[in-house]
Write a structure and sequence with these properties.
- By secondary structure, the protein is α/β, with parallel strands linked by helices.
- It is built from five helices and six strands.
- Strands 3-2-4-1-5-6 form a six-stranded mixed beta sheet, with helices on both faces.
- The chain is globular, with a radius of gyration of 14 Å.
- The N and C termini lie far apart (34 Å).
- The model has no long low-confidence stretch (mean pLDDT 94).
Length: 164
């Protein structure tokens, strides 16, 4: 794996009819913000080969929106991604990303945000960018980490004109 994309699910409903967090659905804003981030990545030449998705409703729906942009990517649902910490996300990425150039994980905070901050530090991202990640990894945000040579980029709905 040469590059890792971490995409946090888009904005979701505060509650699901079932009362279960797992069933919370993506909002229209969440779909729009996801498309903004994905289109910006494509414009930057970033395209996933393999996508691993949490099975929660909002992450599955985030991928459904993203797949309109990333039409060639192969996607798989990974149940462990629903509740997983940054170390386990990175280990999963290393295991599943072997043999692909770019792996994308569609998941949740706090794991994705914490891992994004760690990867940004490892890539020696600019202090301004490090500060932004440390404060928040908002819904619909994506981080892109290149490993050789080290690089890091952050795409947030607010930066791309969305988030409202």
């Amino acid at each position: 794996m040469d590059r890792l994309i971490l995409l946090r699910h888009g904005k979701a409903d505060a509650e699901a009819n079932s009362g279960q967090d797992f069933d919370r659905a993506l909002t229209d804003r969440g779909r729009r913000d996801t498309l903004l981030a994905c289109k910006a990545m494509v414009e930057a030449g970033v395209y996933p080969d393999l996508v691993l998705i949490s099975p929660a409703a909002r992450t599955v729906q985030t991928w459904e929106a993203a797949s309109a942009v990333f039409t060639r990517a192969v996607a798989r649902t990974i149940p462990a991604l629903y509740e997983i910490g940054p170390d386990d996300i990175l280990n999963l990425a290393k295991e599943e990303g072997a043999g692909v150039q770019t792996l994308m994980i569609v998941g949740h905070n706090p794991g994705l945000g914490a891992l994004s901050a760690r990867l940004a530090a490892g890539a020696r991202a600019a202090p301004e960018l490090m500060g932004r990640i440390g404060m928040s990894f908002p819904t619909g945000a994506a981080s892109v980490t290149g490993f050789d040579p080290p690089s890091f980029a952050l795409y947030t709905p607010k930066d791309l004109g969305g988030g409202s």
